[in-house]
Amino acid sequence: MPVAVKTCGLSDRRAVDAALAGGARFLGFVFFPPSPRDISPGRAATLSAALPAGTASVGVVVDPDDDFIDAILSQTRLDYIQLHGKESPARAQAIRARTGCRIIKAVSVSEASDIARAAAYRESADLILFDAKPAADASRPGGNAEAFDWQLFEAVPPPSSGWLLSGGLDAGNVGEAVRITRAPAVDVSSGIESAPGRKDPAKIGAFLAAAAAVDAGAGEASA
């Protein structure tokens, strides 16, 4: 089974077009001002208008309150809301019920026990995204171009339902990452940039081609 790809932190038409041309299954838009990938809801609405069937739009937020989510959804339609902060299972469930959007919950990983924490979101998240735990002094919880030890999945199996692997992925290592983890889907942001927040269409194409050449072989992540 081909691995599904989420291209995250998109902010311009050339990047979106490259992601669609390469077969990305998820387009991620970041709504988090400290990030160099932050985008306005109006801009995201323009970029995600009329997506082809099978491609999902994802809004990435960090510990949002209801007003913040309402402001985003008043301007743009999202298929998924990705919670990339410290949101509890109850909060994830409440956001899903309030918005009608499917939920991706990011789980930060530095050791095997972190993978096990995903089980708490079994009833409240549709997909789990495993990302590298940021450094203590990091200003944002993701998009830091850091990978975690993929061998940790040998000690603690990932969820049997859908999940994505994130953290430090690029065209050069995504094949190895999927072969080791058997991830059904991957998330990339800094690995397809020429500078923080500046997506490179050539790198997007190369990453999607590299991912397409590898079979996931386990699990499922569906748009």
Topology record:
Elements: E1 4-7, H1 13-22, E2 26-30, H2 41-48, E3 56-61, H3 66-73, E4 80-83, H4 89-99, E5 102-109, H5 112-116, E6 127-132, E7 163-165, H6 174-181, E8 185-188, E9 193-195, E10 198-199, H7 201-212
Helix pairs in contact: 1-7
Question: How would you describe the overall organization of this protein?
Answer:
Helix 1 (13-22) packs parallel to helix 7 (201-212). It is globular, with a radius of gyration of 16 Å. The chain has helices at residues 13-22, 41-48, 66-73, 89-99, 112-116, 174-181, 201-212, and strands at 4-7, 26-30, 56-61, 80-83, 102-109, 127-132, 163-165, 185-188, 193-195, 198-199. The chain has one domain (4-212): Aldolase class I (TIM Barrel), CATH 3.20.20.70. The chain has 7 helices and 10 strands. With 223 residues, the chain is α/β, with parallel strands linked by helices. Strands 7-6-5-4-3-2-1-8 form an 8-stranded parallel sheet. Strands 9-10 form a two-stranded antiparallel sheet.
